[in-house]
Write a structure and sequence with these properties.
Elements: E1 19-29, H1 31-35, E2 45-55, E3 58-69, E4 72-84, E5 91-102, E6 105-120, E7 126-137, E8 145-157, E9 162-172, E10 180-184, E11 187-191, E12 204-214, E13 227-238
Length: 239
Amino acid sequence: MKKRFFMASALVAGALSCAAQLDVQLHYDLGHAMYGGDLNNRQRLTATIENFTADKWGSTYFFIDADFGDQTMRGAYGEISRELQFWKAPVAAHVEYDGGLNGFGSFNDAYLVGPAYNWNSKDFSKGVSLQVMYKYLAKHDQCKHSWQVTGVWRNTFAKGLCTFSGFLDVWHDNSVDGNLIVLSEPQFWFNLAPLKRVSDDFKLSVGTEVEISNNFVYPVNGRNNRFYAIPTLACKWTF
């Protein structure tokens, strides 16, 4: 259920007739250092490729995460979504697929559909999106029909040097304590291109992401029934 901060770029789709952007991220996960053997099964490195394209009918967004640990690739996870918004109202029609593979086969296949409300500041340095969706969990034995609420935000400030962004997902799952899973991944980036004596084409950013979750992460011994806050050290190149 990872939606990287880049999804917030979709907030500008209503103002653009055609736009596209691609970025690549590398995250070093600090879960092992913070939680020890409890998270020995967690990846150490995650590489992310993501793309956003806007057109006159709306926008398309996708990303793919590749997880690495113990000198091998442990799995891959991706999301792809399409928003239709060829009218002036700030509400779009949102359709999404989430799924992936790991060493035991496929997991987390989900299909989502619902409305999305998008807002931007006049200069597009700030934006928020709110999505309320029906969610079909294809491989869930106990609860195939569910719902999900997603919030996405982005704020670029300090003359473009800093970006604070992220998402918050809340969805229903009757197999966990309280029947709710919460996942948020706020990110903070320091963008090097706006610095003096740095070329505008040097699109490198350094920063961090913190995976904040409840009932989401599976430890080595146990089940997804507790709270975690797991930071990363990260870098990103925007094309």
